[in-house]
Structure prediction request, 622 residues.
Amino acid sequence: MTLLTILIDGLAYGMVLFVLASGLSVTLGLMNFVNLAHGAFAMVGGYVTVVLMQRYGVHFLWTLPAAFLTAAAAGYVLERTLYRPMYAKSHLDQVVFSIGLVFMAVAAMKYVMGSQQQIISLPEWLRGRFDVFGVSIGRYRFFVFVLCGLLALTLHFVFSRTRFGSRLRAAVDDARVARGLGIPVNGLFAITFAVGSGLAGFGGALGIELLGLDPTFPLKFMIYFLIVVTVGGTTTITGPFLAAMLLGVADVMGKYLIPQAGAFIIYALMVALLLLRPEGLFSRSRS
Amino acid sequence: MSGENLPGRVYGSLLAARRWHPAEIAFWLLAVVVYFALPRQLLLLNEIAILALFALSLDLILGYAGIVSLGHAAFLGMGAYVAGLLALHVTADPLIGLVAASAASALLGLVTSPLVLKGNDLTRLMVTLGIGLLMLELANSLSFITGGADGLQGIVMGNLLGVFEFDLFGKTAYAYSLSVLFILFLIARRIVHSPFGLSLRAIRDNSLRATAAGVPRNGRLAAVYTLSAAYAGAAGALLAQTTSFVSLDVLDFHRSADVMLVLILGGPGWLYGGLVGSIAFKFLQDLIAGWTPQYWQFWIGLLLVLFVLGGREILHGGIKGLVARIPFLQRGRRP
Prediction:
């Protein structure tokens, strides 16, 4: 293992984390809603891929859009029915509500799929490694890196260059004024929530190979999503992206180089970063 | 507003709130009566008392000072490990362990309190969650002290006050936990109905205005955070001493989540919230776990979702309506 190989592993890991958490960062910024159940949508996506591949023999690549759509649909329905009444409530109620959802999702998934780790067999061309100038790179990690990189660029484009994106940014900055200007904030939010959940499902499906998948997934990775969002801030796409990269590289490097420290490094890093920049590492100052 | 006698009126209202309501006395009498009435349930009752103390500790910061914490298990675990290690290596006396565990947790609370003073609700949530996970990782990696995943085994406690032996049925355990809970409850009751407690509520309701009125926000919050940590440490010590076992589970995230759920069930912001909540939570857990042991979490989750979506208003409204019909309970209801 050379340092460069670890670095690329870390970047691929960070990319997946970004796709998983990007939806959360927008919904958090938009509605100021603390959704700890975001990981449940990722888990749904992951299990859609597992079920489609294992029971119906669908090709891995085709399961990815299915994972996205299923999670997005679940997100849309839940937002319309359960989440909407919660926006006006206190942060404490929102935390309790979403923890309740996580508990339900974990237990329900355990009931339906069993509590074992899920394994998928990737297609031949994604297995193994290849060498570039003596640096060994996992094929799947490279694939994830490219795919998520393209996705991040698309998101950035939508967020910063389109009409939808500018409305979204206006709503995140000040929902009240945006409403006053005639921007349909609630409708915007429903779409964003659905897309964000879909992205989480997509990330969950991509991440089976890198992060693992079992019913405790939403609890295990909750802290990772929250780190990405809080450290990255909620006003841009680049903030969470850089935060996810930093987290991915720090976590993978820490686990390779100082295995006995475990996850200690990233938690310490997070606490330190939040102390130095309570508003998020890359966010513009909001005064 | 008549300004001339404001201090007098404030003291008057504080004194009025400090007076004991008959329902409170009945509550504690009932807690003693069950010791004799339900000798087979003492182990469960002991768990309830410990959970109640833990929830009381969270109530101090969450209900009275408005600090939402997702990592309160850090202090429970600190107390449990200190009490367990002390019993294994130094002294088997439970009371010394209890005091040492509280002190250690208080110290941890004091050291980490600057972290929770900064930022908004969300960063606070993150930082407390981070501290909780850090403690779990720490306990996991310091396995030569903590026993790692195996936990601390072979804890043998000495007799309580040198007289009462810890028995298999939880007789001493429940009496011990209940006494500690009661004493700490009295102290908490005195504190929240003091000017100090009033200033905490001022900070909770409007931090900016409280600061403008001259309340030293950071100092007060640090003080109550430390106090709450000491309470959680005491709960951890009770847990370690009465079960003779400490494992990484005491630091797990579900402990922090559960205690928050307990407090939500009972209602934060009044001291009985944690106590009532822990009784309800444990009975529900016992009931559901007996019916569907693997999936009880699902039903707890469902309960919480329904509860915050509107069930609480119905439930608490119903209770208030009931209380309003009974003249005996008129005074000293929850605010």
